[in-house]
Amino acid sequence: MGTGNERRRASREAGGARRKLFRSSGTAKADGLASESDEITTIHAGQGARVTTRKNAAEAADRARKNAEARYAKRHPEEVGPQVGPPRSTRNVVLIVIAAILALAVVFALGTLITSLVFPPAEQENRQNDQNLRPTASEQEMIDRQEAHDAAQEQAGVDGSVSYGNETYSLSQGEEGTWALVNAAGDVLFELEGTPAALLRSAETILIPENREDGWDVVCYVIGGHLSGVTYVVDSNGDAVGGSGSIDSAELDDTTLRVTDDSGKTTDVALV
After folding, report:
1. Rg for the chain, CA atoms, rounded
2. Which tens digits make up the pLDDT trace of 117-165?
3. Model confidence over 42-95: pLDDT tens digits?
């Protein structure tokens, strides 16, 4: 056994060792508690380690391949090309644009052609109608001849006839002795009050000088413009043109109707 001093020193060293051991144990215990750490992070669904099964084996293999490619690309960047699409030259773009324009032009031309065939322009349609309605040379000759005839004058006796357009006019006496102007079909246009001395036509106007009991007058009929009843030629004062005695002859001289009575007197009747 040692001296008293040695025993006291040994006792102090043993007590210090025991306190150090207790402090170390307390720190380890505090450091080992997860609930006392400030760096705890919660793991959610789908995070953390995944166990490879038959269902996700392909996905795991694909993920491993991509990771391997990424690691290779990181180690060998010179072998990785730029991530761009396929090259497209300016010439190809220009050719595509030209082809599109030509296609649109063809479609527009076809549409215009079909529209013009189905719906011709008004001028073309009118021209076609004019050509279809235009008479032939022989037909035009007949038309011109008829127009010249209608614009001229005709003179006939009581038993004669005059024509205008495609219609013929004549005088007819009924069973009771009454005279009337009729057309080619025999339709009565109007009846006279006296006895006709002649049948004349100046353009579209038919003139019938007639004898009455107290003298003579001139009946007129406008083709296509006569209403009904008997109409007489009048002078500038609106009085019916006529004279005494009976008519011996009547003739047209341009715009004048010249009437001669049985006494030899001549009366000129202006028609305009």
Report:
1. 65
2. 777 666 666 666 666 678 889 999 999 999 999 999 999 999 999 999 9
3. 655 555 556 667 667 777 777 778 888 788 777 777 666 555 555 567 888 888
Tokens 């996700």 label which residue? 56
Residue 267 DSSP symbol: E
130 or 197, which is more confident: 197
Closest CA to 169 of 153, 152, 187: 187
Give the pair of three-digit tokens for residue 204: 């579209």
Q: How far apart are the first and last CA of the chain?
A: 184
Please give the DSSP secondary-structure letter assigned to residue 214: T
Say which DSSP state 36 is in. Answer: G
Query: 174: Cβ–Cβ under 8 A, 6 or more apart, which residues?
Result: 180
**CB neighbours (10 Å) of residue 258?**
13
Residue that has been written with the tokens 């007590």 in this structure: 15
Q: Which of 30-34, 117-121, 152-156, 227-231 has the lowest mean pLDDT?
A: 30-34
* C-alpha span between 234 and 184 (Å, rounded): 28
Cα dist from 36 to 40, 41, 43, 201, whole Å:
9, 13, 18, 139
* Spatial separation of the C-alpha atoms in residues 4 and 260, rounded to whole Å: 200
Query: How far is residue 156's CA from residue 201's CA, in Å, rounded to a whole number?
Result: 9
Structure tokens, 72: 């290779």
Q: For residue 71, give the H/E element and its range.
A: helix 57-75
CA distances from 102 to 89, 107, 109 (A): 20, 9, 10
Instruction: Please tell me the pTM assigned to this model.
Output: 0.53
